[in-house]
Amino acid sequence: MKLFSLPLLFGAPQGTGGAPATGMEQIISFAPFILIIAIFYFLIIRPQNKKQKETQRMLNELKKGDRVVTVGGVHGTITTIRDSSVVLKVDDNVKIEFNRSAVASVTHVAKEEKPEAQIEDNSSSAGN
């Protein structure tokens, strides 16, 4: 068998003879690409955006007294909060300043302090 007869064995390509594809055929040909984009959105992009929003909310809600862990693994308690940084107390007389973005997670949330007037009212009513 000669090499030039090989394409003849496969036959002519099936189709409309070079006529332009109709609208439905174009949609069907793009369906795999649309499906791949949808899969990427629901498996990669959407969860990443959700995690980023949760992290930003956590960083905005930081307050004095929260116990946190930094991305470097340093555990500490927030003593001071500034615009773009936090000061952590990691040991007695040891304080380190970190960027807010370096806080990876909050391990223990500080309890809300009651104003002193409410504390006195509660103690006086308990004695009556």
CATH architecture classification name of one domain: Roll
- The CATH C-level class name of one domain: Mainly Beta
* N→C terminal distance: 112 Å
Which range best describes the helical content: under 10%, 10-25%, 25-40%, 40-55%, 55-70% or over 70%?
40-55%
Q: In one word, what is the shape? A: rod-shaped
Largest sheet descriptor: 5 strands, antiparallel
The sequence of SSEs as H and E is: HHEEEEEH
Radius of gyration: 32 Å
Mean pLDDT: 82
Number of separate strands: 5
Q: Largest sheet, order of strands side by side?
A: 4-3-2-1-5
CATH level-3 fold name of one domain:
SH3 type barrels
What would you note in describing this structure?
The chain is an alpha+beta fold and 128 residues long. The chain is built from 3 helices and 5 strands. It has a 5-stranded antiparallel sheet with strand order 4-3-2-1-5, covered by helices on one side. The longest helix is centred in the N-terminal third of the chain and has 38 residues, at 23-60. The model has no long low-confidence stretch (mean pLDDT 82).
